[in-house]
Amino acid sequence: MTLAETQALFHEAITAAAPLGPERLRSCFAGSAGLPAEDRVAIYAGMYLARLMDALRQTFPALARLLGDQALGALAGDYLRRHPSRHHDIGQVGRRLPAFLRRHPDPERPDLADLAALEWARQATFFAPDRPAAGPELFAGLAPGDFAGAALRFHPALRRLALLHDAAPLWRSLQDGVAPGPPAAGPVTMAVWRRGFEVVHATLADDEAEALRRAAAGAPLAEVCAAFAEAPDPAAAAHRALASWLAEGWIAGLRRRRRR
Fold this sequence. Notes:
The protein has eleven helices and five strands, in the order αααααααββαββαααβ. The protein is mainly alpha-helical. Strand 3 (about 190-195) and strand 4 form a beta hairpin.
């Protein structure tokens, strides 16, 4: 066999859902009376699977605490059989886990997918590129017409999550080592962002969630601020939200509408 063929067979042997036939492995890999080729290869296959499971534990620590080792191992095995690692970055192995849990819900904890989505977003936020955030002077000097037509550019570390359950209380309970309560009501929108090297998240009020949705879709600020129309003081509510987004470093800049 050529080197490329040997490498392909070894990769297949350690990543396959079921062991390969002994004849195929013995035709390429050396064994001994005490440890035949298929058993030697099985050691590497076990190490490979264990490393992927470790990566899932590191990416989803709250989920791991909630499930425990046995249940997490069963979940990870099922997930990895259906979604084997296809990316050179082992940290990406869990990117489909929230959707997998959504398709296969636990009747006792239907919020598992939401917790996994939050943890995945937190990891993505931590590793997102660093960019300068806009300061409070961003809107200074803008004429009313320019303000209304401008759109926001967001920092690449910001993530917006639409969840069926509020995962924040469950995540906090697991962080604090407190017995988790029942699944929290939803649906909710959560924001995940970075303060320096710290990743933080928050559940947004409905009007702010709608404003952020519009802004993320590229709507002009007039439409973004209109999301607060039902507030007792719409202008003040819109101002508070935009000031908060600036203070938290969500906004990277503006896209101004071209004048005709």
